[in-house]
Write the structure tokens for this entry.
Amino acid sequence: MSDSTPAAPVVLDIWCDLECPDCHLALSDVHALRARYDDRVEVRLRHFPLDKHKHAYAAAQAAEEAAAQGKDWPYIEAVLARTDELARTGEPLLLDVARELGLDAEEFDTALIDGRHLLIVDADQAEGRAIGVTGTPTYVVGDERLDGGKSQDGLRERIEEIIDRLLAERG
């Protein structure tokens, strides 16, 4: 009798600052990786708000509220598409994006005030620092860390090589 339980997906963690233009550019790679691997790869956004981006920490908390309301990636992508506007307008943009996606913007506002998602953001940031993340985007797949903040050139191909190897090892 064969075991028909599907193998767990390869996990790709992306350490991201939602005010970072390089993270916005990385979305095309995320889309391509999802299209190529479908459910064989789990793409997880990990928060790493940088001090130089004054609204990134609030954006990370807002992304967690979007996750709580069931629209994490649509929200993340919508905010990343407007990094310049986020830098200029801050929290009002975070609430506007929530409204545009049909989320409860009042609950977003409350979440940003009461800090209910602070621990998640802080834990991601601490874990990132512990494994050597210094900028965004940074990718971790398997036990390999790839820094996309310096250059996106050839990065997706390198990630694909690692994913292909990990999938082949699983049989």
The chain has eight helices and four strands. The first strand starts at residue 10 and ends at 16. The chain has a mean pLDDT of 92.
